[in-house]
Specification:
The chain is an alpha+beta fold and about 375 residues long. The chain has 4 domains: about 5-95, DnaJ domain (Helix Hairpins, Orthogonal Bundle), CATH 1.10.287.110; about 105-150 and about 205-255, Urease metallochaperone UreE, N-terminal domain (HSP40/DNAj peptide-binding domain), CATH 2.60.260.20; about 255-330, HSP40/DNAj peptide-binding domain; about 335-375, no CATH class. It has helices spanning about 5-10, 15-30, 40-55, 60-65, 90-95, 125-130, 275-280, 335-350, 365-375, and strands spanning about 85-90, 115-120, 130-140, 155-160, 165-175, 175-185, 195, 205-220, 225-230, 245-250, 260, 265-270, 280-285, 290-295, 305, 325-330. The strands form 6 sheets. Strands 11-12-16-15 form a 4-stranded mixed beta sheet. Strand 5 (about 165-175) and strand 6 form a beta hairpin. Helix 2 (about 15-30) runs antiparallel to helix 3 (about 40-55). About 25% of the residues are buried.
């Protein structure tokens, strides 16, 4: 016959933890081996100790009340690995993984999710920094209940199904013995408490959705794909929990003149063939204002003129990139007779009336190609 631990301690089945502790202390003093040398008292002391071990542990007591005997799982035979015929899934987890599967009640207050938004800025704002307003649709703490989720004057009460544990247990008999399984309580959904009077505005969630306006500080030097992190500006968590973070991904709009290569800016400057041959100066309107570009004599198509320090600021260090001006030499296509005569005269002076085929030291090309080569 299974041992009746309540009868061993002399307490009713609905005895409180304090009643069980007092009964154990009284019987332990009476039957302790240091007090009595009687063999019957020593055996009685073992029974009292076993009863207290089960009934003082809420989990073991629940298993015992459901028909199981937690102490049989530590016997020398019957179950796998030397366990007795009755054991829980916790015993299996402990045996194989060295850990327990007990979860306990879940917290109603949890951290909110992070949010991601995208924001477009122009090239000048990306280079020099700016402050821009954006509209954010996120969850915020309910203004009526301040995130508590309850109506005025009410509070959460302990679930009468799981008694605040957040989970319920079932004992089943199988070929392994008595197996206890646990699952979240269906009434409180694993929280251990229920909300009898939820807030009418947020329906007990502790948060509502609303639209906010935020001022985003865009640092100098950002580029497309840069993400800015705003700590605590994301979704407020359930139950008024702490908010997550807001990430703003920057997209830089294309500029009609300048493009970006890393921290350098690149633009194209078209000059006439004669200006490239003779040299000239061109005023270029940069993002820092007008700058004079010196085109040296004999500049070739595709050469780059570098203007130091007029590029994008380095995002994580001091200094700036450069502005690289790509020179395109414009070859005239509509020539009048006088212009043709002048070019023929130039070609005659330079010995370039006829184009010889490609050689080992001179590339193939027409008149203007050879004219370009003479200036190199």
């Amino acid at each position: 016959m299974p041992t009746d631990y309540y009868e061993v301690l002399g307490v009713p089945r609905d005895a409180s933890a304090d009643d069980i502790k007092r009964a154990y202390r009284r019987l332990a003093r009476q039957h302790h081996p240091d007090v009595s040398e009687n063999a019957d008292d020593q055996e009685r002391f073992k029974e009292v100790s076993n009863a207290y071990e089960v009934l003082s542990d809420p989990r073991k007591r629940e298993m015992y009340d459901l028909g199981g005997d937690p102490l049989r799982s530590s016997g020398a035979s019957g179950g796998p690995g030397g366990m007795g015929g009755d054991f829980t899934f916790t015993d299996i987890f402990d045996a194989f993984f060295g850990q327990t599967s007990s979860r306990g009640p879940r917290s109603r207050t949890r951290r909110g999710q992070d949010a991601l938004l995208r924001m477009e800025v122009d090239l000048a704002s990306a280079l020099f920094g700016t402050t821009q307003e954006i509209q954010v649709d996120t969850a915020v703490a309910c203004p009526t209940c301040s995130g508590a989720g309850t109506s005025d004057g009410s509070d959460f009460v302990t679930c009468d199904v799981c008694r605040g544990r957040g989970e319920i247990s079932h004992v089943q008999r199988s070929f392994l013995g008595q197996v206890m399984t646990t699952r979240p309580c269906p009434q409180c959904r694993g929280f251990g408490t229920v909300n009898p009077h939820p807030c009418p505005e947020c329906a007990g969630d502790g948060r509502v959705r609303t639209r906010r306006t935020l001022n985003i500080e865009v640092p100098a030097g950002v580029d497309s794909g840069t993400r800015l992190q705003l700590v605590g500006e994301g979704e407020v968590g359930p139950g008024g929990g702490p908010a997550g973070d807001l990430y703003v991904e920057v997209t830089v709009r294309a500029h009609p003149v300048f493009s970006r290569e890393g921290d350098d800016l690149v633009c194209t400057l078209t000059v006439p063939m004669s200006a490239a041959a003779l040299g000239t100066t061109v005023e270029l309107e940069t993002l820092d204002g007008p700058r004079v570009v010196e085109v040296p004599p004999g500049t070739q198509f595709g050469e780059r003129i570098v203007l130091r320090g007029l590029g994008a600021p380095h995002l994580r260090s001091s200094g700036r990139g450069d502005l690289r001006v790509l020179v395109e030499v414009h070859t005239p296509t509509a020539l009048d007779e006088r212009q043709r005569d002048l070019l023929r005269e130039l070609a005659s002076v330079r010995g370039e009336e006829k184009v010889v085929g490609p050689t080992a030291d001179r590339p193939a090309g027409g008149f203007f190609t050879r004219l370009r080569d003479k200036f190199s």
